[in-house]
């Protein structure tokens, strides 16, 4: 798995030319990329969400489309339309922005549920059905969506089915004082705010190979039981209406394999699962109504679950791997 680690280190260094700090967040993003997952960036404006998506696309030479979601956005604005060409008297298909490889769905919760639902099929099955015809999307198709967790005026909350299709939800957060100073120094330097540019340092084919290697990472049967036990605990929790779905456990498994490969290992450790449990699973929970006005205590509940469920013993893991 050293080739996967070398690839991710190269990508992190290149993205670091544009994004100051945020090593852990970039690593989560690359984990989702290598696990063929989608990412929901939930943060306030101005923290670098759009720049992060552009930097990833530039690093891999991927076709990139930024879609500004608004209440008047229609599903056909995303998928494309068939139009009648008067010159040849035939209908032709004009593809929409979803036929790119990397999509930035900016402020996704400002579009109507009808438009949001147009992403369900393409995110899960990598295909789009239009007028009875099914068209395949690119192999590297990935959606990075953003939403502001503070401003809810004029927004439409993402339904559970939509949230469940995002492998990881992450926050960039405000920079530290040192990082903030570095951002200002780059802004004041030659070229201004956008003086740092991410260059192409890897090919889509390298990503495909890395994705294949990640899928070969070993995970013991004890750890599979551990993942199921964590999911079962959320389904039986007295304060949770809907716990982690089977899709959620599959996402946690794939993310753990990719994260282990990024660390240069050929096997998954319990710490990999514990590290990814909240970013992969917190947004999939539906809590009791009495918690709706208390912010989002889902992360606290998942911490409780991690403390309650025993971690497989080291001896059992070693025997399973052997």
UniProtKB/TrEMBL annotation:
This is MoxR-like ATPases. Residues 38-168 form the ATPase AAA-3 domain. Keywords: ATP-binding, Nucleotide-binding. PANTHER family: METHANOL DEHYDROGENASE REGULATOR, MOXR FAMILY PROTEIN. SUPFAM superfamilies: P-loop containing nucleoside triphosphate hydrolases. Residues 233-292 form the ChlI/MoxR AAA lid domain. Belongs to the MoxR family. InterPro entries: ATPase_AAA-3, CbbQ/NirQ/NorQ/GpvN, ChlI/MoxR_AAA_lid, P-loop_NTPase. It comes from Paenibacillus pini JCM 16418. Coiled coil: none annotated. One of its GO terms (molecular function) is ATP binding. The keyword Nucleotide-binding applies.
